[in-house]
């Protein structure tokens, strides 16, 4: 994983991200780097965790992304 993408993950002291969290961070970093419409919104978005779960009886998957703090005037506002 690129060091720049790793900066998108903020974990508690002593905790390391798992492989899936690193994949999510890389995807966020790639979107920020390649999508000019999302760049400003994603710049201040940092995750503290991510996991994939089965939904609809296991026929589909969903990703739960934990965000550390609320972005100012962004996604939740």
Task: Provide keyphrases for this structure.
3 helices; two-stranded antiparallel sheet; alpha+beta; single chain; 77 residues; 22% strand; structural constituent of ribosome; globular; ribonucleoprotein
Could you characterize what this model shows?
The protein is globular. The protein is built from three helices and two strands. It has one domain (3-67). The chain has 77 residues and is an alpha+beta fold. The mean pLDDT is 89. It has a two-stranded antiparallel ribbon with strand order 1-2. Strand 1 (47-55) and strand 2 (60-67) form a beta hairpin.
What integer is the average pLDDT?
A: 89
| Helix-and-strand structural type | alpha+beta
Number of strands: 2
What is the number of independent domains? 1
The SSE order reads HHHEE
Biggest sheet layout:
2 strands, antiparallel
Query: Beta-strand percentage?
Result: 15-25%
The CA-CA distance between the termini, in Å, is 31 Å
Share of helix among residues? 25-40%
Overall spatial form: globular
Structure annotation, total helices:
3
InterPro entries: Ribosomal_eS7
Family: Belongs to the eukaryotic ribosomal protein eS7 family.
Pfam family, one: Ribosomal_S7e
Organism: Monoraphidium neglectum
What does the secondary structure layout of this molecule look like, with pairings?
Elements: H1 3-6, H2 19-34, H3 36-43, E1 47-55, E2 60-67
Antiparallel strand pairs: 1-2
Short description:
With 77 residues, this protein is an alpha+beta fold. It has helices at residues 3-6, 19-34, 36-43, and strands spanning 47-55, 60-67. Helices cover 36% and strands 22% of the residues.
């Amino acid at each position: 994983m690129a060091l720049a993408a790793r900066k998108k993950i903020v974990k508690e002291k002593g905790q390391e991200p798992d492989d899936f969290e690193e994949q999510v961070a890389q995807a966020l970093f790639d979107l920020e780097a390649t999508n000019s419409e999302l760049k400003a919104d994603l710049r201040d978005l940092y995750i503290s965790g991510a996991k994939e779960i089965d939904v609809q009886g296991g026929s589909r998957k969903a990703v739960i992304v934990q965000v550390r703090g609320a972005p100012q005037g962004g996604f939740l506002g």
